[in-house]
Structure formats: structure tokens, C-alpha cells
Amino acid sequence: MCQDHKPVGNPSHFEGTEQEKSTAHAVDGTFAQYTQGMKFFDPHVHMTSRTTDDYQALADAGVVALIEPAFWLGQPRTGLASFKDYFASLVGWERFRSSQFGIKHYCTIGLNSREANHEALAEQVMEILPLFLQKEGVVGVGEIGFDDQTAAEEKYYRAQLELAKEMNLPVQVHTPHRDKKKGTERSMAIALEHGIAPNMVIIDHNNEETVKSVLDQGFYAAFTIYPFTKMGNERMVEIVKHYGPERIMVNSAADWGISDPLAIPKTAALMKIKEVPDEHIRLVTYQNALDAFAQSGQIQEADFIHGLEIDQTQKFNGNTILRGGQAPRIDKDSLIIR
Ligand SMILES: [Zn+2]
Predict the structure, then answer these.
(1) How far is the CA of 27 from the centre of ligand 1 (A)?
(2) 158 and 141 in contact (C-beta within 8 Å)?
(3) What pLDDT score was predicted for residue 99?
């Protein structure tokens, strides 16, 4: 057993300090009172790691579309076939599962920074990326970038930037939690060096230290809201108040670690309470993410703005989300599943 009783952090994302514990819980039970009628777009959430209850809660809270970036699964993959199956599930089964709850599912595909360090395997993954990046509903290369800021990470970050450029796709950049400022600056400098327009790059996991430079250089600035640590809701509200809504977007980055898939509606509620204008809330929790990733040519707002048709009698390769005896929900032309 572990001697150290401190909670284990999520190594795939930025971790803040103990001090950064925010009021994430303040709006936990009541957020829906403030977000009636609002629609949300979560541009970073790892639904593969989440349950059907989460899908239901997201739909109930007004999340109409989401993007699932390819990422690190918590332990290293040992062969190319597991990457292939994972990428295939992001454009296949997971998209189907999401549709069964009325949420439009997109994904980004890429070699994550941690696994870039296994060079022999990374080489093989690079070979199959173009095939998956061409698939319908793939809205960018991601999440890629730096973790430990090693030479191998840089090599595959650069290679994937070239791929994004060739295929004219947006890039979703994971920034490291150690040496964040340096890693963020380096990520941006390299993207510019490869001739990628900053408006095609979404720099993720920002904080107060990085946001100004990211916005000043013309990149999109994404913020991950986590419960207990990191970028809490309150800090997020202050950032939007200070910088305004342009090119800023909020995400949950919910995954297999301690995280909250409802981070966006809860943050929107807090913004509403703190009197951030409605239009600013809409931009940072919906429109800016849509605009950034629609540059892929793969997102049509009309596909989800009025809700998806939910028909749980549908199957994916013969499989259903229903279990024996459960009645399928058929709920056409309705935004909210009841
Ligand atoms: Zn992620």
C-alpha cells in the first residue's frame, strides 16, 4: 500500500496546488437553476472513461456536443493494435454510445506526449494517424504536445504539427503541469515555427500565468476546470471578467481521474451568479469551441443545435447500450432526454 496518503494526481493534466481548492462545490447542487435554456459544447472530455450516468447527466445539463481527444489511458499500450482499436472506438462505439443520449460526439486523434517517449511504437502510430485523421467527425489532431518536455516528445509534436498542416486540421495542444509556463511558450513557438496559423491551435490547460501570452499571440486558450484543485470555477470567472470572452473556452477534461464532467454547466452557473454577461458565458462555454474546431470542416451546428434524434433501439455492430429487459427510449426532436 501507498505510504503517502495524499491523493494521487492525474498525470495527464495540469495539477494545481492545495491552495487552489476552489468553490467548485458551491454550485454543485444548484447549478441547473442558473443554466436553464443554455446549451454547452465541451471541447475536451474523455467519455471512454465515463459511465452512461455521466452521459445522461451531461444531456440533462444542456451539453449538446462534445469532443473526445485521444489520450493516455493510464498505463502504456504495448502494441500498435491497442492504438488502432482505441482510435477506432473513438470514431465508432463511443460516438454511437453518445448518440444514444442525444449528444453529438466528435474526436481529435493523435499520439499523446507520454507515449511519444516510446519511440519504436510511436513510429508505428505515426503511420496510422493519417488514416484516422481523415475519418468523418475527426475535428483535429490532439491531444498532443509536451509532458516531461523530452526530445522524443518534441520530435513527435513537430511531426504531428506537420500532419495537421498537411490535412488542414486544428491542433489541440496539451500543456505540461510541470514547468507549465516554459512548456506552453515552447509549444506555441514550435507551432509558429512550423507555419501554423495561431487561430488553428487550441492551447489547453491554461492558467493565470499562461493566458495573456496565449491570447496576445492569437491562439485559442482553453481552460480545464477540475474539482478540488487546479483551475477552479472561481478563478475561471475572474479570468473571463479580466480578459473578456474572445478565444477563451472552458472544458472539463473529465477522464479516469478525479474530475467532473459537469464542470462547464457549473462554471456557467457561477459566471451567471457573478454577473458575467450572458453572451460572454455563451461564447466561452459553447461558441468559441465550436468556431475553433469547425475550422476542420467537420462540424455542422445544424446537426445538434436542435438536439439529436434518440433511438435506443439502434445497434452498433449488433451491440446495444440496453441490457436485458430494458425499454428503449425513442425521443425524436427533443433537446432534453427525460
Ligand atoms: Zn485530456
Answers:
(1) 24
(2) no
(3) 95
